[in-house]
Amino acid sequence: MEIEIALSFQGDTPIYEQIETQIRSQILSGKLEAGTPIPSMRALAKMLKVSVITVQKAYENLRNEGLIESVVGRGTIVSASNRQAIAEARQRELEEKIEDVIRLAKESGLSLDQLQDLISLLFKED
User: Fold this and answer.
1) Residue 78: other Cβ atoms inside 10 A
2) What values do phi and psi take at 107, rounded to 5?
3) What pLDDT is attached to residue 1?
4) Which of 6, 51, 82, 116 is most exposed, with the fewest beta carbons within 10 Å of its own?
5) Hey, which residues does 37 pair with through a beta bridge?
6) How far is CA 83 from CA 30, 67, 69, 120, in A?
7) Which of 68, 21, 10 is nearest to 41 (CA)?
8) pLDDT, position 91
9) d(CA 53, CA 28)
10) What is the mean pLDDT of each run of 10 residues along the chain (126 residues)?
C-alpha cells in the first residue's frame, strides 16, 4: 500500500500539518494498516519536493501520538501497538467535529432537543 499525499502550497495550512493530517487520516481509516512501511523522511521529502525538516516535524507529531514508530531494520512503520492511539485520535477527531456541529446549531438557533432529534434521525438512517 503506497501512501498518498496531495499538498497545497496556496492555503494557510502549513505543509507539515497537511502531511501529518493526511497520514493520520489514512491510518485512522485503515488504509494504512499496522506494520505498513512509511517512506523515510528523506524519501517522502524528495517525493513531495519539500524540506526534510518539514517531513520530520510531521513524523514527530505522528510519533508522539503513537501512530507511527521507527523500527531498526524496517524504518518507519504504522505502529503495531496503535489501537489505543487510534481510538484516542478518533475520539479527539469526533469531539472536534461535534464541537463544530454544536457551534453551528447554536448559530442556527437550534435547541439541544432539536439537535439531539436531528442526530438521532440521521444516526438511524445509516
Assistant:
1) 23
2) -65, -30
3) 56
4) 6
5) 77
6) 11, 9, 13, 28
7) 68
8) 85
9) 24
10) 87 94 90 90 95 96 91 86 72 90 95 93 83
- Grid coordinates of 58: 510531521
What residue type is assigned to position 125 of the chain?
Answer: E
C-alpha span between 71 and 49 (Å, rounded): 25
Three cell numbers, residue 45:
521529502
Buried b (16+ CB within 10 A) or exposed e, 24-56: bebbbeeebeeebebbebeebbeebebeeebbe
Whether 38 contacts 52, CB under 8 Å:
no
User: 97 vs 53, 59, 93, 94, CA distance in Å?
Assistant: 30, 24, 6, 5
Concatenating the DSSP letter of every residue in the chain gives --------SSSSS-HHHHHHHHHHHHHHTTSS-TT-EE--HHHHHHHHT--HHHHHHHHHHHHHTTSEEEETTTEEEE-TT-HHHHHHHHHHHHHHHHHHHHHHHHHTT--HHHHHHHHHHHHHH-
User: Going by C-beta distance under 8 Å and a sequence separation of 6 or more, which residues neighbour residue 14?
Assistant: none
Residue 89: predicted pLDDT: 76
